[in-house]
Amino acid sequence: MSNLNDGVLELARPEIIGVLPNFPGSENNLLPRALLFEPLKVAIPTWQELESPAFLTLWLGWNGQTLPVTEYYFEPPINPGLFPYTAEIAPQLFSQEGEYEVHYKLDIGGNEYVSHLNTFTVDRTPPNLGNPGPLPLFPQDLIDRTITPEYLVAHNDEVEVTIARYLGQRPCDVITFYFGAATENNGLQISVHDSASDTVFKLKGDIIRAKGDGDHFAFYSLNDRAGNEGRNSRYQPIRVRGM
After folding, report:
1. Same domain, residue pair 222 and 132
2. Do residues 142 and 89 both lie within one domain?
3. Host domain of residue 182
4. Looking at the structure, do residues 222 and 183 belong to the same domain, yes or no?
5. How large is the average pLDDT for residues 218-231?
6. What is the total count of domains within the chain?
7. Helix, strand, coil abundance in the chain, percent, nearest 5
8. pLDDT tens digit string along 158-191?
9. Looking at 4-8, 85-89, 207-211, 222-226, which range is the least confident one?
10. CB of 227 closer than 8 Å to CB of 198
11. What is the CATH number of the domain that holds 53?
12. Which of 13, 14, 26, 54 is at 20 to 30 A from 105, Cα to Cα?
């Protein structure tokens, strides 16, 4: 970082508070749905020459706009304890889906300096575009879609279930699988590993036996990492016999 006397001040990018952690293949700095309806907090980091004896104006810049969306004024002497300083962005400015850019600009005694950019992502669309997912798939050798003790013995006391890839699938989406009544609300949660593959998991024999003999339903719901909730899938009838 250079000294103000050199006429150059390199400013670190602002921190977007509350975004979800990034990982390979994830949306960048994804904002949780719970934060979409309140002012977004942005932390302005401190810098080396903060105690300069000059008036300071801080602007928060937005998506490359030349006009600031927010501005703050500080009179000397400036208290270093104010920084990192938390600025706010009104929620109506990020009401649409997409990636947004944030930076800040300082006017220190008439000299202006612009920070590096940071970005965050807004996702408001539920998995599968909010449509019910297709039927959960059961093995072809599950005759008449009936689970018996003999089938469980022959298959390591479990039944393989496949959830086909759906529209908008992303890593760390959550599939909540239900087995039992159509009103079942105690589900098994499975994390989606990637955006291109079907999700395969095992329905354990203990769960099946606990439901007992009779006609049951298998179905699931989808939730994405941002917190968007999808609708229940189509219901697959499954019979349990001889338990």
Report:
1. yes
2. no
3. 127-240
4. yes
5. 96
6. 2
7. 15, 35, 50
8. 999 999 999 999 999 999 999 999 888 889 999 9
9. 4-8
10. no
11. 2.60.40.10
12. 26
